[in-house]
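Record type: monomer structure entry
Structure origin: computed from sequence
Chain ID: A
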Amino acid sequence: QVQLVESGGGLVQAGGSLRLSCAASGRTASYIAMGWFRQAPGREREFVSGISWSGGSTYYATSVKGRFTISRDNAKNTVYLQMNALNPEDTAVYYCAAGNKLSYIRSTYDHWGQGTQVTVSS
């Protein structure tokens, strides 16, 4: 099992920045990819970004490319999502996920955190 705990969400004005963290514990070596997803009210949970745990390959959704940066610190078993130039459309609950394959697809991720709220005011 892998336990994931997100932190770093909050309220920010449009144009501002936040950095989300996802601390992993448990059988982290079993999973080779970490991802961030988000879900806004009334909408499906959507892929935001992903990173391979050891190889450093990264994926981004088109809507966040150039504004968000995913990174990881293997020594701390932590994945980060630096979010810049935030806009109200980025408002959502952000979830961290762990999977066996770096993918855009939600179903490839087996373990999920509880989520952290990000609210961007206009």
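Annotation 1: DSSP finds no helices and eleven strands in the chain.
Annotation 2: The mean pLDDT is 93.
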